[in-house]
Specification:
Blueprint (H helix, E strand, L loop, with lengths): L3 E12 L3 E12 L2 H21 L8 E15 L5 E19 L2 H12 L5 E8 L3 H27 L3 E8 L12 E7 L17 E13 L1
Antiparallel strand pairs: 1-8, 2-4, 2-5, 3-4, 5-7, 6-8
């Protein structure tokens, strides 16, 4: 009978974020569709101008979501029955802007958005530009962790670790969740010259993954 030992290796890596991801949300409402689209377009132009003034290319402002919906409210009539009453149109336009981590540039971008009168919601994430490097480091860490555990167990009972028989790994994409998030609420209506930013020092990103290794016991 073949003698086997099965060990789960846990990989852990800590990496410094190197990418800033800005999430920008514009919501425009109007009872007239054409007016809603016109205002939404004007606010989009203000946002683009702010990005360019901050020193980023205009095409770095990318649409991540766009939708137009109708808004209704529930209203009671004379008979006491409720009916839906048309309120207006709502245009939701979400953007993303990515650039290498540079706190000074980030503050500049936020400053110009604040002065743009675009009235948008702003969220900031600090993450990794290349997840491939993190995946490689995690697999290497998991393999070393598993072998160390297996050798420790074998030494404890006086046997020798043999060849690897099987490796089980879930090849799903690693989700890199930013540990440091910066939510600024509504931006683009701050008075000129009043806006300032505190110091920002993003936390390191800690990742983990695992794989199961099966060895022969020699």
């Amino acid at each position: 009978m073949e003698k086997l030992i099965t060990v789960k290796g846990v990989g852990q890596v800590t990496m410094k974020p190197d990418l800033v991801v800005l999430s920008l949300e514009l919501e425009t409402t109007s009872c007239d569709y054409d007016q809603c689209m016109k205002i939404a377009g004007e606010r989009c132009d203000l946002l683009k101008d702010a990005i360019v003034k901050a020193g980023l290319p205009g095409d770095s402002l990318k649409t991540s979501n766009f939708g137009v919906t109708t808004e209704f409210r529930s209203e009671k009539n004379r008979d006491g029955n409720y009916r839906s009453v048309f309120v207006g149109w709502k245009c939701s336009h979400d953007f993303k802007v990515e650039f290498p981590l540079d706190i000074k540039l980030l503050k500049t971008v936020l400053h110009f958005i604040a002065e743009s009168h675009a009235d948008c919601k702003v969220g900031v994430d600090f993450t990794l530009a290349d997840s491939g490097e993190a995946e490689t480091a995690l697999l290497d860490s998991a393999a070393k962790n598993a072998r160390k555990k297996a050798e420790t167990l074998c030494n404890a009972i006086g046997v020798t670790l043999g060849s690897v028989v099987r490796i089980d790994y879930n090849w799903s994409e690693i989700n890199i969740f930013p540990h440091t998030k910066y939510d600024s609420g509504i931006f683009g209506s701050a008075p000129t010259g009043v806006y300032s930013e505190p110091e920002i020092d993003p936390e390191d990103i800690k990742l983990n993954d695992n794989a199961t290794f099966v060895w022969e016991i020699a």
